[in-house]
Amino acid sequence: MDFTERAKKLKTDIPAVFIALNKKETPIIAKIFAGIVIGYALSPIDFIPDFIPVIGWVDDLIILPALIVITLKFIPQEIFTQCRVEAEALWDGGKPKKWYFAIPIISLWLLIIFFIIF
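RESULT FIELD:
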């Protein structure tokens, strides 16, 4: 599997992990790791900031896929296959427009700004 195929697979695996997070059949340990994956994927705060050329993107290319692989180990295969099918359907009408997923990230940034100012 080459780089472009892995990138396309990652594009559907991240939403599939989010969908698995909401399923009651998913084990608790998988939900914990799925929450970490989704939080890291959506968070503007990285271990290595993205404004550092090349190195800033390397952590996203290594840490995010590694977290997904760890999460997938805990999710039963039949549940994740179903979640992957649902995730592929998310992109049928273009990019999903669910702005309310940004609320936790915006809240975190506002909290950080508040503590910096005061």
